[in-house]
Amino acid sequence: MYLIMSPPSSSLLCNINFVMARMIIFLLLCVCLCVCVCVCVCVGSMDINVERIIQCIKQGDENSVQAQLQEFNKEFAQCFFFNAEERDRKKQKKLDEFRKNKVREYTDSDSDCDEYGQGDQGLILRQNLAAVLVRFIKSGIKGRLLRVSLHTLRILSRDKKVLSPLVTDSALLTLARLAGLATSEVSEEASDHDSDFYDNVIASVTEAKVLQCRTDEGDDEDEGDTGDQNEECCAFDEDTKSDISIANTGDMDSISWLGSHRTSINETHRSSFHHKVLEQGRRDRRESKMEGEEEEEEGESAEEAQRKEAMKVLCNVVYNSTWAQERFSTLRLMCGLIECLSSSVSSSSPSVQFYELRLMFLITALRPELSTQLQKEGGVSILTAALESCLEVQWKNQNECVLDPAAAPISLEASQRIIEILKTLFNITYSTHRQEPSEDDAALYRHLVAILRLCLLRKCILSEDTDELQGHTVNLLSALPLQCLNVLLTVPLEPSSEQCEGVNMDCVHTLLVFMERRLESGDKIKEKLTPILNLLTESCRAHRETRHYIRKHILPPLRDVSQRPEEGTTVKSRLIRLMTHLDTNLKHCAADLIFVLCKENVRRFVKYTGYGNAAGLLATRGLLGGQLTRTFSSDAQYSSDSDSDTEEYRQAKDRINPVTGRVEAEQPDPMEGMTEEEKEEEAKRLIMLFNKLSRDKIIQPMGVNSEGKLVPIVGLSENSLCEEGKFESEDDGEAEEGEKN
After folding, report:
1. pLDDT at 51
2. Which of 13, 269, 618, 633 has its CA 20 to 30 A from that of 230?
């Protein structure tokens, strides 16, 4: 009250400020202490969980094990890359040290644990937990506890450094049996007693905690020491460590297919292995519950939930481990997967079938010999039946499906399964494009193409699902034999159908709209555009009506020639801009499409694109020698109809610059007012300048040979040197004569 009613003295104000300052400092210390406690709890949470889980498993307390595993799964359900922030921080620090010292420390270790750094002692804990869970599952646990344990293994299998207990033959066969891919029981190894095994694991966990403390103390002094890295891998024997695969980190819960035309995988060579790399993409969008929830999906039995969890673990292990891929082939698990998929078309739940298809796609993308095996064992017919089931196809006749405009859109679950089927079909058929199929194969492919017509014309619930579905359909269509694609055009006309000369063009119109969307998106343009450009080009070569319809939309008759062909927002201008793209394959695909639309006629091709844009394709095909007639470089047979010019084009034709393809503004004559002698001298100076650029290897003079291809001009340099010497001597003579005068 005194402080409020009376004016404070200066000494009292000082005391108040001092007390407030102490209170602020105290509060800051409390906040820092809380932060430190939270950090310690976060860092040690996995330590406590793992140690407690192992203790409960050793004691045989299944209720406690289930409760602890559920807590672990809930905490780490969304954790896809363990220790990512710590790893990035240490990589950045090492990079800064390298820039400062200009030297990289040498580490004599090819262990798969190197990139994690010495501070990730949690790796040992996760490895031990994976080893204990594999042994625990082999002991014959059932029911909900088994599903919870498999869920934990799925979370751990996202980290490639923890895969050593999961890539042994015994572990793979156990997972395959639980997933329904194998029927034989797996015998348990009797190398150690249970008590010794768990005692060794607990000792390893304790050692990891001690190493963690030592690492935290010495982290600021020396982070380059690799001694602890070797200790990290001592949790398992050398035979087990040899099973660890050097592969890219990933999780099959977040993998999508981003492939280019007729290329399923990118290969990289590291050590003695040939590694297949799939790019990481967005998470699956499926009508299922959140991953953190343990409840089964509606209508799903306990056995199906168990199979699904085991299948997810297999997907992660196969994706992350080259060794697991090789053992999958050696253990002949592909046969079990084929049989499982054949029987699950009508019996399994959609979610189980999805992961069967995902595993099938993975293994055919990563192991070419298994892709060949699937094709030989009737994989096309099996997957076609699965595709037909997902789309609920109804047939009008042999190669025509019922397309109901009032049908409901394709569901999220069905669209995801269809996409997996299309990707797997591409893996096993991409080599058949240039082959002549037998009668049986041709009938099978035509049956498949009739179903693919539905994939093109039907919509999904989400627009992005529709675009993805059409993209994979285009990839598959471009891989099938060209003569089997006529099924797309032999459908009878409907009142609302797009048509050209009496032929149904609904599919062609859909492909054109799809190509326009890909042109406008501008994202991953090579991967997204190359397949559709190739498909349209081949279709135009094979079908006259298709070429006429597409030409009408892409290359309408020329009227406005006031701007360059590549300028503007039309489909034609976008394609012409691609003809000078940096990527060689992409620019050739775009140029080929327009060239075919011009009936492979050089004069017409230059007319629509300009000589500057057309030069790349003409040089590649040896057409720079002035051939202005049609070139039959392919088996295509074009009609002899002429390309009629519009009235606007005929009026401006004489003023069009053939290089730019437009009417240029009139430029003043640079030689106006010059005498013939001055023009000749200017020409000689230009020759000298070109010769100098050629001598300095800045440019190389080229000419066109008899085959129409660019070749270096031989002898130009010698002739230019003679002309230059003669010109210089004449200049010197004129200078001397001027001095005399």
Report:
1. 78
2. 269
pLDDT band at 454; cut points 50, 70, 90: very high
**CA dihedral defined by 57, 60, 61, 66, rounded to 10 degrees?**
50
Joined together, the tokens standing for residue 308 give: 């699904």
Residues in the chain: 741
How does DSSP classify residue 166? G
CB 364 within 8 A of CB 374: yes
User: CA–CA separation, 545 vs 551, rounded Å?
Assistant: 10
pLDDT band at 229 (very low <50, low <70, confident <90, very high): very low
> Are 535 and 521 in contact, with CB atoms under 8 Å apart?
no
The pLDDT of residue 20: 66
Please compute Rg for the chain using Cα positions. 35
Residues 476-500 pLDDT 10s: 999 999 999 999 999 999 888 999 9
- In angstroms, the CA 130 to CA 152 distance is 8
Residues 6 or more apart whose Cβ sits within 8 Å of residue 399: 446, 447, 449, 450, 487, 490
Q: Residue 629 above 60 pLDDT?
A: no
Q: Quick one: pLDDT band at residue 561, thresholds 50, 70, 90?
A: confident
Q: What angle do CA 212, 96, 44 make, to 5 degrees?
A: 20
Mean pLDDT of all residues in the chain?
A: 76
H/E/C letters for each residue in 78-112? CCCCCCHHHHHHHHHHHHHHHHHHCCCCCCCCCCC
- pLDDT value for 292: 39
Least Cα distance to 307 among 291, 318, 296 occurs for 296
- Indicate whether 252 pLDDT > 90: no
Q: How far is CA 445 from CA 109, 262, 429, in A?
A: 51, 17, 10
**Which two three-digit tokens encode residue 93?**
């620090």
Q: Is 143 left (phi over 0), alpha (psi -120 to 50) or beta?
A: left
Count how many Cα atoms sit within 13 Å of the Cα of residue 485 in the half-sphere of its side chain.
22
Cα atoms in the Cβ-side hemisphere of radius 13 Å centred on 281: 12
pLDDT in tens, 137-177: 998 898 999 999 999 999 999 988 889 899 999 999 999 99
Pick from 273, 363, 372: which is nearest to 315 by CA?
363
**Degrees (nearest 5) of the Cα angle 557, 561, 564?**
110
DSSP 231-298: HHGGGS-HHHHTT--------GGGB----BTTB--EEEEETTEEEEE--B-PPP--SS--TT--PPPT
Domain residue ranges of the chain, discontinuous segments joined by +: 50-84+113-216+230-284+302-331, 349-488, 490-664, 681-740
Phi, psi of 663 (to 5 degrees): -80, 120
pLDDT for residue 523: 77
Residue range 342-350: mean pLDDT, rounded: 74
The Cα–Cα gap between 221 and 714 comes to: 66
Torsion of CA 95, 96, 97, 102, to 10 degrees: 80
What is the reported pLDDT for 525? 87
* Whole-structure pTM value: 0.74
Distance CA 435, CA 611 (A): 36
CB-based contacts of 600, cutoff 8 Å, min separation 6: 630, 631, 632, 633, 634, 636, 638
Secondary structure, 3-state, 301-349? CHHHHHHHHHHHHHHHHHHHCHHHHHHHHHCCHHHHHHHHHHHHHHHCC
* Residue 538 phi, psi (nearest 5): -65, -40
Q: Which two tokens stand for residue 111?
A: 């262990």
**Range 511-546 burial, b when 16+ CB lie within 10 A, else e:** bbebbbebbeeeeeeebbbbbbbbbbbbbbbbbbbb
Report the candidate in 231, 237, 236, 212 with the shortest Cα–Cα distance to residue 83: 212
